[in-house]
Amino acid sequence: xxxxxxxxxxxxxxxxxxxxxxxxxxxxxxxxxxxxxxxxxxxxxxxxxxxxxxxxxxxxxxxxxxxxxxxxxxxxxxxxxxxxxxxxxxxxxxxxxxxxxxxxxxxxxxxxxxxxxxxxxxxxxxxxxxxxxxxxxxxxxxxxxxxxxxxxxxxxxxxxxxxxxxxxxxxxxxxxxxxxxxxxxxxxxxxxxxxxxx
Length: 198
Prior knowledge:
The protein has helices at about 1-15, 25-35, 40-50, 55-95, 95-100, 105-135, 150-160, 175-195; strands at about 165, 170. It has about 200 residues and is an all-alpha fold. It has two domains: about 1-140, no CATH class; about 150-198, no CATH class. The protein has a two-stranded antiparallel ribbon. Strand 1 (about 165) and strand 2 form a beta hairpin. The chain is globular and about 60 Å long. The N and C termini lie far apart (about 40 Å).
């Protein structure tokens, strides 16, 4: 039964989320936490892993979540569920796409969708920032703060690198992932080694 639930849950996520993997984060978080499959902390960890590993974000997080909930079978079905809607839609509209995109109404709808996706991505950024850096899980019911000063320090140290150009080119985003991962492993490892809690 859990396999069908995973397939259906991630199928709905893939079907109703437009704008790429990051736009799926609110729906993934709500779905897996409300089902009792993962805690909010585990979801945040999976998001960090999915962002840092090769491949599409949505596929990565579906695979990790499915594996955690129901092993290899869960991983396969969650991944299948999240990619199936896109596959079906692409097959259905591939032949009609050129004519379809020329219609003014369609372009206006996509213009509205782009605005909605921008809002979703801002929501994801705000939610993750508050959760990871300040320990706030629900911005509408803040009871306590548990700031992560190490995380804030890494964020503050790495942000200026976004403005650095080498030979007229900005640094590649993958470099930011490597730097943040290395600093995180080093600093949190040292604190853990010396028994300092953050």
